[in-house]
Amino acid sequence: MRISPEDVEQLRTAKKILENPGLVAKFTNLVGAPIEKGLVLLPGDWQKKVSLATREALMMALKSALLTMGSGTREARPGWHKFAAALSGGIGGAFGLPALMVELPVSTTIILRSIADIGRSQGEELSTAQAQLACLEVFALGGPSRQDDSSESGYFAVRSALARAVSEASKYLAEKTVVEEGAPALVRLIAAVAARFQVQVSEKAAAMAVPIIGAIGGGGINLLFIDHFQNMSRGHFAVRKLERKYDQTLVRDTYEAL
Fold first, then answer.
1. What is the distance in angstroms between the CA of the first residue and the CA of the last residue of the chain?
2. How far apart are CA 92 and CA 99, in angstroms?
3. Can you tell me the distance from the alpha carbon of 242 to that of 194, in angstroms, rounded to the nearest whole number?
4. Domain boundaries, position 141
5. pLDDT per residue as tens digits for the range 48-58
6. What angle do CA 149, 223, 26 make, to 5 degrees?
7. C-alpha to C-alpha distances, 2 to 5, 6, 127, 251, nearest whole angstrom
8. Number of domains comprising the chain
9. Residues of 121-153 as b/e, b for ≥16 C-beta within 10 angstroms?
10. Residue (of 123, 144, 155) closest to 252 by Cα position
11. What is the pLDDT of residues 83-122, one digit of tens each?
12. Taking the model in full, what pTM does it have?
């Protein structure tokens, strides 16, 4: 079986999205200063706070974002979620960097809803555990960044690294009607995704640490943040759609060969 030329072009487009240069350049263009300068301004214990806040935000988003999402295929509405994310960032930005710890769960939930909305438009059945966890995977697909090793940041490399945790969490969710935060299967998956997502959160915090950023800047940063993950989700679900149509190994081999 061979992938049609039209679908190869879709895969090529998805790869261009998924292997993009990440958020650093976009944040730098917005704030007019290198992100590294912002990192210097962060408190010494910032990484520990980011790590904890990221895990809590992902768990909260998983428990709440998908509950009211309807099933069936319908057109995505990314503009509405961008507005909500910008509003959240604007309010958080008005109170400075410390407000990020409060704002992060809100913006993460908004982003996950937008990811799910895009997934649904690509044929994902959101009532299934597999589709729900595929949405969560997007947070680990941040693209190459200043902290990534190229051997570990490729799209399929990330999915392979998460595969076991995703499988265990999928089995757990399929058997439960209520998500328990302390469930080992979910804890392992959240930790694995958070390890990558917190890199992007740190870059967002570094951008917010630049002195010129206020309420308007906070909204702009969140627009870039959600736009980035909306793009990641478009690439991710385009690949998954082709995997439902063709053999998964064939899709991966073709992707790698492009």
1. 18
2. 5
3. 27
4. 5-257
5. 888 888 888 89
6. 40
7. 9, 11, 31, 9
8. 1
9. bbebebeebebbbbbbbbbbbbbbbeebeeeeb
10. 155
11. 777 777 666 665 666 677 778 888 888 889 899 999 999 9
12. 0.84
